[in-house]
Specification:
The chain is an all-alpha fold. About 75% of the residues lie in helices and about 0% in strands. The mean pLDDT is about 85. One of its GO terms (biological process) is phosphate ion transport. One of its GO terms (cellular component) is plasma membrane.
Length: about 290
């Protein structure tokens, strides 16, 4: 028995080590390749220039337009997924019968299995024409339709993890609330949701990370026009879309234009790292407040 436990511990340690080494290898590769880029383009220019045209004759290397497009589509996605996902989680946990919950929850999670390229064409051919009828003048490629469909894609992540967090709230808190005369809705919104806020925050963190790294939906529906804007009705380009554009194009390896994908990649890594740490901080604050 002890030998078996030691073998299991060794396998677990090996798995953890492989994960850490893989992450470290990715960081080193990005840093080394990005260093070639930053030898020719000053970091200040990269962070402050408001134009991104490395493939044009008039070259500009400001990452802000790509960061803007990434945050814009992610913001739209979270604006769709968070309220819908939380409403679904509250209904399934507080109102639905056990049989209904056991049927609906797996069906929601099927959305996560749909290929993202399908979501992309759905955004382009269905959602965009529908929104154009509601919003005259909206461009054929835009951040709103791409972000909205991306929100549908990450909806199972938010609803499922939030529902698990709500389920973990002790029954005694609900009973104490009912004993004080609160309704079911008041109990859900003022007792259960605050108590489960740390778990809900985790679901939002994971959803944001998933949305920031999404490629196919934004590549198909959002366009490929890097611009510094907060207007979701116009075409934008995200960091992942640009990386795909250059990687699959005719840009020669080793050129400055090709090295831009590593600079964009390390920017995406830092952006995700910052968002995750901010989310972790919020989670800890919520946990300290309600524990």
């Amino acid at each position: 028995m002890k030998q078996r436990e030691r073998l299991i511990e060794a396998l677990l340690a090996l798995s953890a080590g492989i994960s850490v080494l893989t992450t470290g290898g990715i960081i080193v590769m990005l840093a080394v390749e990005a260093a070639h880029f930053f030898r020719q383009v000053p970091l200040g220019t990269f962070l402050t220039d408001t134009q991104w045209t490395p493939l044009f004759a008039d070259k500009h290397f400001g990452i802000l337009p790509l960061v803007s497009g990434t945050l814009l589509t992610t913001g739209v996605a979270i604006a769709v997924a968070l309220p819908l996902g939380l409403i679904i989680a509250i209904y399934l946990n507080e109102y639905a019968t056990v049989g209904f919950r056991n049927v609906i929850k797996p069906l929601l999670e099927v959305l996560a299995a749909v290929p993202t390229v399908v979501y992309g064409f759905f955004a382009l051919t269905v959602v965009t024409p529908f929104l154009q009828r509601l919003i005259p003048g909206m461009a054929g490629f835009n951040a709103l339709s791409a972000g909205s469909v991306m929100g549908i894609m990450i909806l199972p992540l938010v609803s499922s993890l939030s529902e698990d967090a709500l389920t973990a709230v002790p029954r005694s808190l609900r009973e104490a609330s009912y004993a004080l005369g609160a309704t079911r809705l008041q109990t859900a919104m003022r007792v259960v949701v605050p108590a489960a806020s740390s778990g809900i925050t985790v679901s939002v963190i994971l959803a944001i990370s998933r949305a920031v790294g999404e490629t196919m939906i934004v590549a198909i529906a959002a366009g490929q026009e890097p611009r510094l804007t907060a207007n979701p009705l116009v075409p934008v380009e995200t960091i992942t879309t640009y990386i795909v554009q250059v990687s699959s194009g005719d840009v020669a390896y080793g050129t400055l234009e090709y090295d831009t994908i590593f600079a964009a990649g390390i920017t995406l890594f830092v952006l995700t790292l910052v968002l995750n740490n901010v989310g972790y901080w919020f989670r800890q604050k919520f946990r300290e407040q309600y524990e």
